[in-house]
Amino acid sequence: MTDDHARTGVPEAAGRRPLSRKTLLKAALVALPLPALIGGGAALARDHRPSDGPLPPTPFCDDGDDPTPPQIEGPYFKPASPERASLLEPGTRGTRLTVAGYVFGTGCRPVAHALLDFWQADASGAYDNTGFRLRGHQYTDARGGFMLTTIVPGLYPGRTRHLHVKVQAPGGPLLTTQLYFPGEPRNNTDPIFNAALLMNVRQAGPAKEATFDFVVDPGGGPRG
């Protein structure tokens, strides 16, 4: 019997991957589907490898797992961003991108009302340092789900394509990290890049859709 069997009590079907607590939990979460969750299946974002092959996925949300890896904030963060789930504004140019997923605590429970604060470069690789273009924060819903509508960020010298994000469970410590795109040539040369932070990305007509699930320290605050 595998460790997953011991945790879930679900027998492993012949030739099939055993069901983890996380997978069962996600199946229950999507009983009332999160509109933004790409694909609509019962598997979490990290139940699938990124679309460019055998790079290691972000760690599973199982008991005893490490939280999502932190990364440097960088020089372009600005506090007091507007609360909004869409960073698109009139005149925003670039390939539309939707990022959806869940925030979990390290005990594999979804975290309701977790803060997510996103910021990124525009399609030309520039950050808005005077206003709040392509900056915004939001909170997870009662099931720990979130959705971000934005554009694919452009490239600038020294970095691969990425999104910045801060994530915090109510009463928990603040996680600052970055999300990455599979298949980017600069993933191999960016010294900050971490394959554990690759999103699952697919083409959806002229746009792109991505999924990612965060695992954070829930602290002592309320949990979903």
From TrEMBL:
Residues 72-217 form the Intradiol ring-cleavage dioxygenases domain. Coiled coil: none annotated. SUPFAM superfamilies: Aromatic compound dioxygenase. It comes from the Bacteria. Residues 45-73 are annotated as: Disordered. The chain crosses the membrane at residues 24-45. Keywords: Dioxygenase, Membrane, Oxidoreductase, Transmembrane, Transmembrane helix. One of its GO terms (molecular function) is dioxygenase activity. It holds the Pfam family Dioxygenase_C. PANTHER family: DIOXYGENASE, DIOXYGENASE, PUTATIVE (AFU_ORTHOLOGUE AFUA_2G02910)-RELATED. Belongs to the intradiol ring-cleavage dioxygenase family. This is Dioxygenase.
